[in-house]
């Protein structure tokens, strides 16, 4: 059944999905401030964090409540009561746009099911900021969120996208950045990539290179802050079997050269170039 809703038709309960600054408070919009001042309830991931934003702009909502991944379901009854009373809710995340690797999907689904207007309030997004500043092709792009923490789950997470010709965009924490880059290199090959961090802040930084270069870069640098990872996955897709076969040939080459007296490092360099495999991966595979 088709559902058509006029979001701004008159008064009544509404759900505003509000983008907030990802680091620079100057990125706030006049519309966002007007909505935060007018709604009855602001639902946010961390009340301490959002209260700083509200206080900075002298905004004092009737209710400021926590809404995060651990209480999404429990908050549905509260949201229904607010809407039944004809009142409105503004949903915000700690930074950027809600629902993009942040809570909110349950609340949006509930509002739609109850025919409550869901009104997006566009604004800052680390995803889009990283994408437009990366220098990689913008269309099409695929947002992948955060990589799963377990290795086997991470590989299956990437599997449906291996042959997709697009720019991949994902988020990662500093302590898992290196491992995720290595996974991307192993699964996608040595493709152009970009790291973006501290977006909109004083120390905003873009690091561009191939995935193998970014792996080496993160070995030498201490990762700090949240990262946006971008990878250009266009062109030159090997079947996994071919990649594995080339790696096996490269390993055999290195082992033979080392057995004949050649230094391990120089054998790895030669084999990586000869067989088109990742040097760091080959080095680790042939250490013993």
From TrEMBL:
This is Ribosomal RNA small subunit methyltransferase I. It holds the Pfam family TP_methylase. One of its GO terms (cellular component) is cytoplasm. Its EC number is 2.1.1.198. GO terms for molecular function: rRNA (cytosine-2'-O-)-methyltransferase activity. PROSITE patterns: RSMI. It comes from the Bacteria. NCBIfam families: 16S rRNA (cytidine(1402)-2'-O)-methyltransferase. Keywords: Cytoplasm, Methyltransferase, rRNA processing, S-adenosyl-L-methionine, Transferase.
């Amino acid at each position: 059944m088709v559902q058509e809703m006029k979001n701004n038709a008159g008064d009544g309960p509404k759900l505003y999905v509000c983008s907030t600054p990802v680091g620079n408070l100057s990125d706030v919009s006049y519309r966002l401030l007007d909505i935060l001042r007018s709604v009855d309830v602001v639902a946010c991931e961390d009340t301490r964090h959002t209260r700083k934003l509200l206080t900075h702009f002298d905004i004092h909502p009737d209710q400021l409540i926590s809404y995060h991944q651990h209480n999404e379901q429990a908050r549905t009854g509260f949201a229904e009561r607010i809407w039944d009373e004809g009142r409105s809710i503004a949903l915000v995340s700690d930074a950027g746009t809600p629902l993009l690797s942040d809570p909110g999907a349950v609340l949006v689904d509930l509002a739609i099911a109850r025919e409550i207007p869901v009104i997006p309030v566009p604004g800052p997004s680390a995803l889009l900021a990283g994408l437009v500043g990366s220098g990689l092709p913008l269309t099409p792009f695929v947002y992948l969120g955060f990589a799963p923490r377990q290795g086997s789950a991470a590989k299956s997470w990437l599997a449906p996208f291996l042959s997709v010709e697009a720019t991949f965009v994902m988020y990662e924490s500093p302590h898992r950045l290196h491992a995720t880059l290595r996974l991307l290199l192993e699964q996608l090959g040595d493709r152009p990539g970009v790291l973006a961090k501290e977006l909109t802040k004083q120390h905003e930084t873009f690091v561009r290179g191939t995935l193998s270069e970014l792996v080496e870069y993160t070995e030498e640098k201490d990762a700090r802050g949240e990262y946006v990872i971008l990878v250009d996955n266009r062109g030159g897709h090997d079947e996994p079997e071919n990649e594995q076969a080339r790696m096996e040939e490269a390993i055999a080459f290195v082992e033979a050269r080392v057995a004949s007296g050649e230094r391990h490092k120089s054998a790895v360099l030669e084999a990586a170039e000869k067989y088109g495999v990742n040097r760091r991966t080959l080095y680790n595979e042939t250490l013993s």
